Amino acid sequence: MDLEDLVTALAPPPNRVGKADGDHEHHLYEGAVMIAYAMHLLRSEGAQHVRIHPDGEHGKQFDFTGWLDRRGFRKISTIGTTAYGGVYENPAGQTITVNPRSGLGDVVAEVGDHIISAECKGGIINTRHPGQVSRLYKGLCETVGMLMAAPLQGRQVAVVPFTNSTFRLAERLAPRCAMAGIEIALVGSRGEVLNVKSPLASERATSTVK
Question: I need a surface site. Which of 52, 54, 120, 144 has the fewest CB within 10 A?
Fold first, then answer.
């Protein structure tokens, strides 16, 4: 079942029963993180066109077409052979291209004369299971590493789910990431985006998905 439209609540497997806050695990899948950050770029960063590059697994986990349709984005053209690949446009003329191709950056947008390129990871946001908490940690470290290995162009952003543990890790990483030209953003369960600026100061962007 869906929770707050971005989060999928699932019964835990036997080895993780009792390790979540509540009876279900709340999965903020990578596709959901991508779409939430794309909406943030449209609403808060001045982008008019955002490109998302999911893989096949992301498309199985998250309903891109249905989610965008509920936000007023109509599919105006098709890309590739998947049901969800294509260009989506809302009445304001903003567009989101969902292109199932790897190696192009998870979320990419041009704002003014610069490019914003984000790498994203998902995870279980209400878990206390050590292995799943570790996966959230590793997801943030992996996105930072992938950005460091990519050519530097414009703004580079590592985007992962918001949890208390990812927030603490992001604060520790932020100063060194800033020296490498990498930003960190955390996505909450309702699509709100927290830009982690430094160990002492963070600001929450007013881009909650409704």
Answer: 144
